[in-house]
Amino acid sequence: MPLKPLRICAAPGCPSLTRGRYCDAHQTQQQEETKHYNKHSRNKTITSFYKSKDWKRTRQLALIRDNYLCQHCLKDHCFTPADMVHHIVEVKEDWAKRLDLYNLVSLCNACHNKVHGSKGK
Question: How many angstroms separate the CA atoms of 30 and 115, rounded?
């Protein structure tokens, strides 16, 4: 299998070439930052919710309801497969709506990124 092409390290200002996202010098630093974030910042309740059977079942129901199509693209008469199910009101804002089908919409990755980009995320 051919090797991945070399590219510039993703660390700001680092000119090193690497086949991965970060050069060797920044890979360890990135792993430590991720470990710290996971331990101190990530919401464990929300993370475990997204792994639950209830969420997986509700997510599947939303996709079936929306015919596995991105609902934002569909408004523009474009038939794009939905990759994910988005909470209109985020789980961290209203825990009670986490399994509410009326609070869920099926979206493609591009539309999901637009929705979160417009919220400043």
Answer: 27
Domain boundaries, the chain: 7-40, 45-118
**Integer Rg of the chain from CA:** 19
pLDDT digits (tens, 9 = 90+) for 1-51: 788 899 999 999 999 999 999 999 899 999 998 888 877 777 889 989 999
User: Burial code of 30-45, b = ≥16 C-beta within 10 A, e = fewer?
Assistant: eeeeeeeeeeeeeeee
**Integer Cα distance of 119 and 107 in angstroms:** 16
**Hey, what are 6's tokens?**
């070399």
Cβ pair 77, 69 in contact under 8 A: no
pTM of the model: 0.68
